[in-house]
Design brief:
Helix 7 packs across helix 9, helix 8 packs antiparallel against helix 9 and helix 8 runs parallel beside helix 10. The relative contact order is 0.07. The protein is 46% helix and 20% strand. By secondary structure, it is α+β, with helices and mostly antiparallel strands. It is built from 13 helices and 12 strands.
Length: 310
């Protein structure tokens, strides 16, 4: 065994017995030395610029990791969907065909693998499990919504909540970050949240983000969160969501707004906004859960009227 082999053993060990051409150079080796090992069949090429130590175990994690290492540093490819669910330990998911996600427009194709292209991979946290980079648990649950029934998705969420991996607020934030028209998984995750997260865990801020996600999911522009409104130098109000260019204020009236003192503060503030020319739309949790499409219609109508007035 040479000095180069000694230096590469820790790299092989932490990367499921794989090294890349860049790993060889970083360890002080050369491309010729890598080629020599391929010729002597002590290494074998398993992907572009990725080598496996011959005789080492062949594992599912190794098969997942090889294309991920091959893509670096040009793109950060990660395990996702069913493969990420298995790595996170979600019950019912095993070592099936590898499933990866690449940032768009990076192109990666591998036989026997399902590869997704995503333009919102930067909106989640990349974590590592068993030495493999993958989408965080919240993004993984959102992605699973593309394939699962409401019941199966809820069971996966409940497992993640019981084990302390996530909570409703984190899932709602993930939904808001990823919501857009046609985005797979968004509609199902929102439906499961709305049907199940009402057990004393929805805060006013959660409600605001769910309302934001609903609007964006249906093709409306993303509203500004907690827009501060002034009349000259006088502070008038901070509204939950707003389209300031069209002077539309949207208020998510959670349970706290039913309290008398809060309502007494809300009404003068709303009057001030109306007198300044703002359209104020208020939506309750009950309305959100029972008539979401009507909410979208009302906001769209107000937006169209604001465009005509502008």
């Amino acid at each position: 065994m040479t000095d180069l082999d000694d230096r590469l053993i820790p790299v092989f060990a932490r990367q499921h017995w794989l090294v890349t051409a860049d790993d060889v150079l970083a360890a002080g080796g050369t491309r010729q030395e890598a080629h020599d090992r391929l010729q002597r069949r002590t290494w074998e090429r398993v992907d572009q610029r990725v080598y496996r130590l011959v005789g080492a175990p062949i594992t599912w994690e190794q098969r997942l990791l090889a294309p991920i290492l091959s893509a670096a540093p040009a793109a950060r490819v990660v395990a996702s969907h069913h493969s990420a669910a298995a790595l996170h330990g979600i019950p019912g998911y095993g070592h099936g065909a590898p499933e990866l996600t690449t940032p768009r427009p990076f192109n990666l194709r591998r036989a026997g693998m399902r590869v997704h292209s995503s333009n919102d991979l930067d909106r989640c946290t990349i974590v590592t499990r068993s030495g493999v980079p993958l989408t965080d648990i919240d993004r993984t649950l959102l992605d699973l919504g593309r394939y699962l029934s409401d019941g199966r998705l809820l069971r996966a969420i409940e497992w993640a909540r019981r084990t302390g991996r996530t909570d409703w607020s984190r899932l709602i934030s993930t939904l808001a970050r990823h919501a857009r028209r046609g985005r797979s998984g968004v509609q199902r995750l929102r439906r499961v949240i709305v049907a199940n997260a009402h057990r004393g865990e929805i805060t006013d801020s959660d409600f605001e983000l769910l309302l934001l996600a609903l609007l964006v999911e249906h093709g409306l522009p993303e509203p500004v969160v907690h827009q501060r409104v002034y009349d000259g130098g006088r502070f008038v109000a901070e509204v939950d969501l707003a389209y300031p260019d069209r002077m539309i204020a949207i208020e998510a009236d959670g349970g706290v707004h039913l309290e008398t003192d809060v309502r007494e503060r809300d009404l003068p503030r709303q009057n001030d906004l109306v007198l300044l020319g703002w359209t104020v739309l208020r939506f309750t949790w009950k309305r959100f859960t029972t008539r979401p499409t009507q909410i979208v219609l009302e906001v769209r109508t107000a937006s169209d009227a604001g465009a005509l007035a502008a």
